[in-house]
């Protein structure tokens, strides 16, 4: 697999839109979806305005079908850490993900050059729990029309709990930057949602026109069933942090945005039961062995 999954530079005056897939190596739906879209763009000679780039995230972890090798490539984008890597002074210099971060950074810098009407960065992920279709975005961009075309729950304030995400790093470089979570890891649903969602985003950014892509996108059909019962906008109010080696185990059966009550037993670890600290909706319950975020509790923001 190559770092650059696809790149099309079209007519001037359009946006720059960068898609990253597989920042976590066991989440291959994004990589496949990006490749699908580029294949169609090329074979059908779809006219493009601006520049569309597809980039693969953690190549080493993708080869092993593992979330990461030495550390999480979506928690290391702290500007001080990245500059220490660039200058060769980090204590983590020889870690697999340090080399991945440097290579990814080089690709992102190279592809970001030039003047564009808009700059958009989309990070494609999948989750280990059901109903994992949502958008993660810094709050100041939650109303952006490009994000709203996906008609998925929008989660704000996660950046206050997750340090060093690539989407925050790109946000701070001036991109409209968000994570697009497609659903359960390894599911056909996630691949289909990501593929159709990429087409919707390309239309919303005016990189391609509806008349050229309507035949390829079945986004409304895919989302019709599940999106009506999901919240529109939520804010994160709690995160359960998992220490390594703590034997954290989520109780089975929880899915994203399921209502929970304060005091409800959600999981357990070596110290015993772990109870909900407040009422709310459970978010990103951890059903895989890797990761330090056990679960989050979110609250609906009502802006009607
Ligand atoms: Zn991920």
Automatic annotation (TrEMBL):
A Pfam short name: AstE_AspA_cat
- This protein's UniProt keywords: Hydrolase, Metal-binding, Zinc
Q: Which cofactor does it need?
A: Zn(2+)
Looking at the record, the residues that make up the Succinylglutamate desuccinylase/Aspartoacylase catalytic domain are 15-178
Q: What InterPro entries does the record tag this protein with?
A: AspA/AstE_fam, AstE_AspA_cat
Q: What is this protein called?
A: Succinylglutamate desuccinylase/aspartoacylase family protein
Please tell me the species this chain comes from: Agaribacillus aureus
């Amino acid at each position: 697999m190559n770092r650059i999954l696809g790149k099309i530079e079209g007519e001037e005056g359009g946006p720059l839109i960068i898609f990253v897939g597989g920042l976590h190596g066991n989440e291959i739906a994004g990589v496949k979806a990006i490749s699908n879209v580029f294949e169609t763009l090329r074979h059908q000679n779809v006219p493009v305005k601006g520049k569309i780039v597809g980039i693969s995230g953690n190549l080493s972890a993708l080869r092993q079908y593992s979330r990461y090798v030495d550390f999480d490539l979506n928690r290391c984008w702290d500007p001080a850490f990245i500059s220490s890597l660039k200058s060769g002074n980090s204590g983590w210099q020889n870690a697999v993900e340090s080399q991945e971060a440097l290579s990814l950074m080089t690709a992102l810098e190279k592809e970001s050059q030039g003047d564009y009407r808009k700059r958009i960065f989309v990070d494609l992920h999948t989750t280990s729990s059901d109903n994992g279709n949502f958008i993660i975005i810094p709050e100041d961009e939650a109303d952006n029309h490009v994000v709203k075309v996906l008609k998925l729950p929008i989660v704000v304030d996660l950046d206050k709990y997750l340090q060093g995400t690539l989407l925050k790093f790109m946000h701070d470089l001036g991109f409209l930057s968000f994570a697009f979570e497609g659903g359960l890891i390894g599911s056909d649903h996630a691949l289909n949602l990501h593929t159709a969602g990429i087409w919707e985003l390309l239309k919303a950014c005016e990189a391609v026109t509806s008349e050229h892509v309507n035949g390829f996108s079945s986004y409304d059909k895919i989302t019709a069933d599940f999106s009506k019962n999901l919240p529109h906008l939520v804010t994160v109010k709690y995160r359960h942090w998992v220490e390594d080696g703590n034997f954290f185990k989520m109780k089975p059966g929880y899915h994203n945005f399921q209502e929970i009550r304060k005091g409800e037993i959600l999981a357990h670890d070596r110290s015993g039961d772990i109870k909900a600290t407040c009422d709310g909706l459970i978010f990103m319950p951890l059903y895989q062995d890797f990761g330090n975020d056990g679960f989050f509790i979110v609250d609906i923001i009502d802006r009607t």
